[in-house]
Write a structure and sequence with these properties.
Blueprint (H helix, E strand, L loop, with lengths): L1 E3 L6 E3 L6 E3 L6 E3 L6 E3 L6 E3 L6 E3 L6 E4 L5 E4 L12 E4 L7 E6 L2 E6 L5 E4 L15 E3 L5 E3 H7 L9 E3 L6 E3 L6 E3 L6 E3 L6 E3 L6 E3 L6 E3 L6 E3 L6 E3 L6 E5 L4 E4 L12 E5 L6 E6 L2 E6 L5 E4 L15 E3 L5 E3 H7 L9 E3 L6 E3 L6 E3 L6 E3 L6 E3 L6 E3 L6 E3 L6 E3 L6 E3 L6 E3 L6 E3 L6 E5 L4 E4 L12 E5 L6 E6 L2 E6 L5 E4 L15 E3 L5 E2 L1 H7 L9 E3 L6 E3 L6 E3 L6 E3 L6 E3 L6 E3 L6 E3 L6 E3 L6 E3 L6 E4 L5 E4 L12 E4 L7 E6 L2 E6 L5 E4 L11
Parallel strand pairs: 1-3, 2-4, 3-5, 4-6, 5-7, 6-8, 7-9, 8-10, 9-13, 10-14, 16-18, 17-19, 18-20, 19-21, 20-22, 21-23, 22-24, 23-25, 24-26, 25-27, 26-30, 27-31, 33-35, 34-36, 35-37, 36-38, 37-39, 38-40, 39-41, 40-42, 41-43, 42-44, 43-45, 44-46, 45-49, 46-50, 52-54, 53-55, 54-56, 55-57, ...
Antiparallel strand pairs: 11-12, 12-13, 14-15, 28-29, 29-30, 31-32, 47-48, 48-49, 50-51, 64-65, 65-66
Length: 698
């Protein structure tokens, strides 16, 4: 039913069903009865009783009374607005006293619940404008005649309990203790004191100079604007002071807290970590990436300040001082120095954009210089040292260290141990020190220092294809007579005579020492040097040792000297001499001259029209492809042309008998072989498989 009173002081009864009662003008009594009813009081001092059911109530203008009690259901005072000063709207509770109800706040709404029932009344927008905009009810009256006015209502909804609550303060200075439960507490404007109690709480100070205490549990505290005090309490808490000069309280038992992305770039800001019951000797600070870590010695308690060191601790995330119980404090300058202090532990030390001096001490440390011209020393331990930008000096010390010059003209000194040195960009100087070191200068005109006691080092895949690059091996206290050069595959090997010290330049000879892996100068103590041409000449000079000598793509002349040597002509028309010893000569490409010398040698002509002379000894000869000439004479020994096969039509391979005429030799067939003997001697030349295919098989 729909019932309208019109003018006068009316009594409207809804009865059963979902009724709409409109009091209109006058001081009316509206009783909804059973069912979900809508009651509108209109103008006048009305009494609204929804009865049983979930009713919607609006007293309208005037000092209205809303009757509510057990069995009333879940009613709503629905945007009942009147901005008149002095209005008194009352919720009148039938047969109920203060201990029978619980009130709470849900956003801007007031909720009245009857304990141990499902009955409730929701006053929409009650707290809008701190319960002063006209939507509020002004008192809650109990059966014994007592009542709560607006000030008590506002305090009651801020009382904590064991339940999970959402508690929101007002424009004034509020005191809120949420108690147990996982609570959300907001202070609003004013200088508020907010306590989370036990549980996982989220506390927001909002505006004003607030005091936030998380209590037990892992809490989140946000100060908002103003000079706030944040104390996470026990548990692992997230803290953010927001704008203003904030103070973070921390001590033994505080847990593992974080000041989490608390950014304010205001010039002159002063955020402070205040340590309760702790003095400088009780804590240790360190740097982890951009973060500052404060640890309480002998405990697991720690405070991490995220992004503290971003922009060298000037970007707004930094705390500005650490204050101790004795009144002393560390300012930003001291903090930055303290985190670079060396210890015996394994440390990670990062410098700043200034010129830093960092000594890591004992331990396997990681050091990064960042910007500036830094001096970084790993000292003892297996350290990793990175210079960053700037012209840096990196010192590995003892241990197996890794040094990274990064950008700039850097000096890298490995020290004792097997070290890895990477110059990076710039004109760097690399000194592996003692030990077997890996060296890579990177881009730029780099210098590798090497001398007696340097060990067995390698310039390892140091590739730069820049046309005018000038990489130098600088030999300390050594002159040209103190070293020997050799080629091993594509590698250049520099040996210090009379020692086991050597420097191997990996891939030096790739592309005839033009592919970018080559060093370009070897410089001696007397100021003289070998350039690339001299280096190539040096590696083709034989010694009395057993050697492998390799030529270039040009026309090379190589004399291996004594020793059992391997000589490779490579490309070009080369002249290769084995000298004394059992040598192997490989002509490779080109029209080569191969001279075995004394002893039993093996000669391979390769491609091209080659001349092969085994010399004295029992030699094995193979001219390979091309029109080859085999030199043979008295004293040549018992040589073999060994499976020298080429099926090319028109080929012209020749045995040239020097100082011998036809009458001086005997020619016979032995199976498939041609056998040439020098009469009156034991000298012979056997051409294996000469007669295969009637001497046409190649």
């Amino acid at each position: 039913d729909t019932v309208s009173g019109g003018g006068g002081n009316d009594t409207l009864l809804g009865g059963a069903g979902a009724d709409r009662l409109n009091g209109d003008d006058g001081n009316d009594l509206l009783q909804g009865g059973t069912g979900n009813d809508i009651l509108n009081g209109g103008i006048g001092n009305d009494i609204l009783d929804g009865g049983a059911g979930n009713d919607r109530l609006d007293g309208g203008a005037g000092d209205d009374a809303y009757l509510f009690g057990k069995g009333s259901g879940q009613d709503t005072i629905y945007y009942a607005y009147e901005a008149r000063a002095g209005k008194v709207d009352t919720v009148k509770l039938s047969d109920l006293k203060a201990s029978d109800i619980t009130i709470s706040r849900d956003a801007a709404d007031l909720i009245i619940r009857i304990n141990d029932t499902t009955d409730s009344m929701q006053v929409l927008n009650h707290f809008a404008g701190d319960a002063a905009t006209g939507y509020q009810i002004d008192r809650i009256q109990f059966a014994d005649g007592s009542f709560w006015d607006q000030s008590i209502i506002k305090l009651q909804v801020l009382k904590g309990s064991d339940a999970d609550q959402s508690l929101t303060g007002y424009a004034g200075d509020d005191i809120i203790d949420a108690g147990a439960g996982d609570d959300a507490v907001s202070g609003g404007a004013g200088n508020d004191t907010l306590s989370g109690g036990s549980g996982l709480d989220t506390i927001s100070g909002d505006e004003g100079d607030d005091n936030l205490n998380g209590g037990a549990g892992n809490d989140t505290l946000n100060g908002g604007t103003g000079d706030d005090i944040l104390d996470g309490g026990a548990g692992n808490d997230l803290l953010n002071g927001g704008a203003g000069d904030d103070t973070y309280l921390f001590g033994k038992g505080s847990g593992q807290d974080s000041i989490y992305y608390a950014n304010e770039s205001r010039l002159g800001k002063l955020d402070t970590v205040k340590l309760l019951g702790l003095n400088p000797s009780d804590v240790t600070i360190s740097r982890d990436g951009y973060d500052l870590i404060l640890k309480v010695n002998g405990t697991t308690d720690s405070l991490r300040i995220y992004y503290h060191f971003m922009g060298d601790a000037t970007s707004g995330y930094q705390i500005d001082r650490i204050q101790f119980a004795d009144g002393s404090f560390w300012d930003q300058t001291f903090i930055k120095t303290e985190v670079l202090r060396s210890t015996d532990a394994n440390q990670s030390l990062t410098g700043y954009e200034t010129d830093d001096v960092i000594n890591a001490g004992v331990g396997d440390d990681s050091i990064s210089g960042s910007g500036g011209n830094d001096t970084l020393s790993g000292e003892a331990g297996d350290d990793t040292v990175s210079g960053g930008t700037g012209n840096d000096t990196l010192i590995g010390g003892s241990g197996a260290d890794t040094l990274n010059g990064d950008d700039g003209d850097d000096l890298l000194q490995g020290g004792v141990g097997n070290d890895n040195l990477y110059g990076g960009n710039g004109n760097d100087v690399l000194d592996g020190g003692s030990g077997n070191d890996l060296l890579n200068g990177g881009n730029g005109d780099d210098t590798y220092l090497f001398g007696k006691g340097s060990g067995q080092d390698r310039v390892y895949y140091a590739n730069e294809t820049r046309a005018d690059k000038l990489d130098t091996v600088k030999l300390i206290d050594l002159n040209a007579g103190d070293v020997s050069l050799s080629r091993d595959g594509y590698d250049l090997v520099i040996r210090v005579n009379g020692t086991t010290d050597s420097l191997r330049v990996v891939y030096h000879f790739m592309g005839d020492a033009t592919a970018g892996y080559q060093i370009d100068h070897i410089q001696f103590a007397d100021g003289s040097f070998w350039d690339q041409t001299a280096i190539k000449t040096q590696i083709m000079q034989g010694t009395a040792a057993d050697e492998t000598l390799s030529g270039t793509s040009a026309d090379d002349t190589i004399d291996a000297g004594a020793g059992d040597d391997t000589v490779n002509g490579m490309a070009g028309s080369d002249t290769l001499s084995g000298g004394a010893g059992a040598d192997t000569l490989n002509g490779n490409d080109g029209n080569d001259v191969l001279q075995g010398g004394a002893d039993d040698d093996v000669l391979y002509g390769g491609d091209g029209s080659d001349v092969l002379d085994g010399g004295a000894g029992n030699d094995r000869l193979d001219g390979g492809a091309g029109d080859d000439i085999y030199i043979f004479c008295k004293g040549a020994g018992q040589d073999s042309i060994y499976y020298a096969n080429e099926t090319r039509a028109g080929k012209m391979d020749t045995v040239k008998l020097t100082d011998l005429n036809a009458s001086d030799v005997s020619v016979t067939r032995d199976g498939m072989d041609l056998f040439i003997r020098v009469n009156g001697t034991t000298d012979s030349l056997r051409v294996i498989y000469h007669f295969l295919g009637d001497a046409t098989a190649g």
